[in-house]
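Hi all, posting the design record for the shared folder.

TITLE: backbone redesign
STEP: 1 of 1
STRUCTURE INPUT:
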């Protein structure tokens, strides 16, 4: 039997509206791994004002912004894409959503325009939790959970993803989605 709030690859963590942590305020995190001793995911809605070809030496010119994946190991770059069948060694996370894969093949596919900016998102750093930490945060109500949808990552404007995910969830979550970011505007 599945536990309430069971987390697995493909789960979305949606920050509750009153979260004050500046790293995670109004964030939506795609979980890529959830093991007994650790968990890993990427914030999918915090685009940075830098392009991936500016960060990675030898990267083909590619008109794609980098996203802030989280506060852990911000000297690393990761990628989520929707071309798993083309990119060797990628890991399926959810329908139409894959993580990683051969970096050399990725560069080749970008250079040949077989991977376009709408197919991939790059992340600086990641969001990580140690054993029991995420379950504790869930028990405090810090996160709302849902299942990943490739459209949230590849199609929607990142600045509206938090609201869109909550609206799609329906019920009381639709009301939460309408809350202004600054509570002083209420």
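Okay, here is what came back for every position:
SEQUENCE:
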């Amino acid at each position: 039997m599945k536990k309430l709030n069971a987390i697995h690859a493909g789960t979305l963590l949606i920050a509750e509206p009153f979260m004050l942590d500046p790293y995670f305020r109004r964030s939506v995190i795609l979980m890529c791994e959830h093991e007994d001793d650790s968990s890993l995911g990427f914030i999918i809605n915090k685009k940075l004002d830098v392009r991936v070809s500016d960060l990675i030496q030898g990267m083909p010119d590619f008109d794609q912004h980098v996203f802030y994946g989280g506060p852990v190991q911000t000297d690393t770059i990761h990628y989520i894409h929707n071309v798993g069948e083309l990119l060797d060694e990628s890991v399926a996370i959810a329908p139409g959503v894959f993580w990683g894969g051969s970096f050399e093949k990725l560069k080749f596919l970008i250079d040949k325009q077989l991977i376009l900016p709408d197919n991939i998102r790059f992340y600086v750093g990641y969001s990580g939790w140690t054993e029991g930490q995420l379950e504790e945060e869930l028990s405090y109500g810090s996160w709302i959970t849902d299942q990943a949808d490739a459209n949230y990552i590849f199609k929607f404007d990142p600045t509206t993803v938090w609201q869109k995910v909550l609206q799609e969830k329906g019920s009381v979550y639709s009301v939460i989605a309408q809350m202004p970011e600054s509570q002083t505007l209420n």
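COMMENT: DSSP finds six helices and ten strands in the chain.
Let me know if anyone wants the other runs.
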